[in-house]
Amino acid sequence: MNGCATIKSFFVESVFVKLEEIEDFYACSISNENDIENLGNFNLNLKKPDIRTKNFLNTTDKIRFYPDALSAQLTTGELNGELTSKSTVIWVRIDTSIGCGGIEPFNLKVNQLPKTNNISTIYTICYKPSLKPPVIISADASNERFEWKDNLGNIQSTDQNFILNTLGEYSLTVFKTENNIECSNTKIFSVINPSPPIFSNILVDTEDETNNIVAVMVSGNSSYEFSLNNINFFSNGSSYTFTQVTPGLRTIYVRDINSCENPIQKTASVLGVKSFFTPNDDDKNDFWNIRGLDAEFYKAIQIKIYNRFGTIIASIDDFDSEGWDGTFNGKLQISNTYWYKAEIIDINDNIIKKIGYFSLIRK
Q1: pTM for the structure as a whole
Q2: CATH number of 274-360, picked from 3.40.50, 2.60.40, 1.10.10, 3.30.70
């Protein structure tokens, strides 16, 4: 007023918190060890106590995290809670009760996963592991601890090496400490048997009554031996032909010469159908029947014989029957071609059906 003025002095007090260099913050990788980008989960809330202690902060001072310096200055894009990130730099901002206290960067670093790449996803062992040298697999030696578990989570071994002797699904978990934190990595793998051979063809030839032949062919990844009694084995390949085979139901056994694949077996009916017979009462080829029918191997038989007009002229349903004698209603049938239809049930309840023809020859 009236050109007068009063001058006074005052103090401006700045409260500034100088932040110490913040130590790197580490996390274990959550990526696959083959991934190009290595990601980790960082719980930023776990970093706050360390920052508060080393910078002598009050409990009322706010600690906030930001992806870059500008965001920290503008307080935009705050990072909260858990952060999934590759190794990078973020910024911490401290706010005191009267204003900003400081901004400082620090590193987020992702530890590499412990190595399991040398473990395959599938291992093959022989169906009887004791027949061959044991299959032993080894975890990477750069790891510090090892846990081999079965599919129920039971620990089978804590050694670096593991012997494979039982089929199933297993896992290996390896541990390694880096930057003062222990990280782990798990690999799941299966233990299986090799695929067994498969019967590709079985040919039964009974045309020669003096020499029944059974030719067996299999497909597989090895060489095989063949047997009809599971005692004496023959061959070293993928096929074998048995000769002089006794008629009836025969079991064919096949095994891997390396004793690694599961053996297989299959039954075959060695039934001979006579192509002709000569019912002349000379005790030589006087009856027609299907050879090899035996109550020891078969439960039931039903054979019907037809003439050229389709009339049923004979039936055979008895294992003890010698067969058809060439007559119908007590009359001799003429030399001609006759048809048969057979249905046979073996001891395993398999139904065998045969249809064909034969000749009656009178001399």
Answers
A1: 0.70
A2: 2.60.40
